[in-house]
Give the backbone structure.
Amino acid sequence: MPLKPRPNVLKVQLYEPGKPVSEVTRELGLTDVVKLASNENPWGPSPKALSALKGSLADINRYPDGGGFYLKEALSAKLGVDPDWIILGNGSDEIGGLLTLTYLDPGDEAVVGDPAFIRYAQNVTLVGGEGISVKLREFTHDLPAMAAAVTPKTKLVFIANPNNPTGTMVTQQEVDNFLHRIPSSVLVVLDEAYYEYIDREDFPKSLEILKERENILILRTFSKIHGLAGLRIGYGIGRPEVISAINRVRPPFNVNSVAQEAALAALDDEEYIEQCRRLNQEGYAYLTQELKRLGIRFVSSVANFILVDVGQDARKVYERLMAEGVIVRPMGGYGLTTHLRVTIGRPEENERFIQAVKKLYSTRA
Amino acid sequence: MEINDFIRKGIRDLKPYQVPGVSYSIKLDAHENPYPLPDRLRAKVEKVMANLPLNRYPDPGAVKLRQAIADYTGLDTDWITVGNGSDELIQSIMLAFGENVVYPEPTFDMYPILAKVTGLSLKGIPLGDNFCLDDEAIIQAAKENQPSLIFISSPNNPTGNSFPREKIERIIVESGALVICDEAYYEFSGESFIPWLAQYENLIILRTLSKLGLAGLRVGYMLASPSIIREINKVKLPYNLNTVSQEIAALVLTDFEPISSQIKEIVAQREEVSQCLKALPGIDSFPSRTNFILMRSNLPGADYIWSELVKAGILIKNLNREGALKDCLRVSIGTHEENAAIISALNRIVFDSEIV
Ligand SMILES: Cc1ncc(COP(=O)(O)O)c(C=O)c1O
Ligand SMILES: Cc1ncc(COP(=O)(O)O)c(C=O)c1O
């Protein structure tokens, strides 16, 4: 008779990832499938990253550099913090999990937005912590309410900025006001997975905040604008005390060597990043204009995806779009039963989405 | 109060992992396969790599790789899950099933480290003379600390020996625990517990591709009944294993012959190195079923030998600490040239040290 899992594990719901293209082509017998489901960069990684990756294959018989020396040096130069302010993860997702292992004892609380990136709450539950969810206001993190939810048991606050799945951001002013109300014994996680897409003056200067405050951890990733989601690499930036605490629970070889090399090259290609940011803005302008024309509501986004309110059971719309070869993400798992999250794709992919939506709406009418 | 006052109690005494800050030209400290990917595989890899959608998240179900593992092990895919190295799987097992961890000592350091990380209680049971397994004491410890997880690496790291099957079977049958047999060195020992999986529901087998030439890619896998696999899948990261690793690992396991040849060569080299070590005064070496050899030197001593080897540009692992590993060193089997280099350096070191 096998052991029973820990009660905390039974409480964890399986994460529902976006459907891979291969699965949809197989299941529906479609050949030309467009995936706008996982907030990936549709343009792929920088060519420089690809050639670095080829070079890295020569050494795959060796363990990776567990300290991530070269990549941390490069990040350090770019961000203006010392390398010991940086930790690398198997995706930034891994760092979220390491954080809960580092700081949460059973019964401790972590404040999360609702709906926000679902992995925070899962990680909290897994270690026996209590996720305290605070409803968003107008699809945006309600920082005053989150501050009010902090109790003596609170150890962590997770703020995705911009938030997934809503695409909204909180401003420098809002974060400042919030931090004034947060005791220094609470670590505030600013998850900036979509940071490089932002083009807003009032976006928080989190690195500056970090220099003033010890209880901040910033998360960023190579999965989004850098186009390397497939390689699994992200990073955290925090005070050396915080970073070394998390390092205690980090498995020594958590980031594979190929990802380290490719990320190093990707980081360097600023021109490519700039280009992807611009193309994303153009995609956003196109999609929102078309949605407006169709009278379909959506939440204004500063990231590379848009939360769309289809005004009916979104799961059904999702399935019908899939039958048209367009994969998006239904948001029922986030409690948004009439919403879809649509990643901004290449122009032809965006058009496919709009065409599919039009077809759907015209056959309904 | 500061945030670090809240670090969970269990992990306050854990130290971040440190890589030795020395330079070397020969690396024999991490039981890696010393050979690069064989040409035939390299060519296949390059072809696959040209079309990988790296901007897309990896397949969370690792369908292709699990199929390759199924073919390699003869099991069904629902008996298989993959990890970012065995490390991640060990941690996932602890997070999923928890409470108490029992293991023989000395063994793979990550068992006690990850038990602390996940907040479990731990109990190491000393190995006996010649590193033999004390099955009785392990069963006893598991019964006294229920529910428990027993980790047994066979062959064992860092001692190199494998444990008698009867003892392991007895532990599986009598302990009432979930027993994890870590077969990280299976390809070098040829002994597997896979045939027992159908029979014993409380058995988990761990494997890795790190010793086979893919250490940089971090690919481990776990074999167990589907009901166990399901729980592990809940606690591991949804996108735990990157696309490149999935693809290359699948490719290597499906066309394993070139790696098999490398393994045969490493095993032959192991026997040769072992013979040479026996001939050295001042060094005792232990029999190995792995791709490394444990040795002990009371005089001139492990610390001395280690630092002299570093001066010669050779990095091995110094395990010297009080207890069973007093004055012990562990050397991985390298290429023929690397092995010759370390044997000749060791020769010089013991003779120069004038213990003979
Ligand atoms: C807010 C947020 N954080 C983190 C992640 C995951 O990033 P990574 O791929 O680095 O694990 C995502 C991915 O969707 C996200 O939306
Ligand atoms: C017994 C044992 N298990 C697992 C591992 C690590 O495997 P991986 O590289 O897959 O994390 C090692 C590596 O030294 C080992 O000795």
Summary: The domain at 49-254 of chain B is CATH 3.40.640.10 (Aspartate Aminotransferase; domain 2). Chain B has a mean pLDDT of 94. The CA atoms of residues 80 and 223 of chain B lie 5 Å apart.
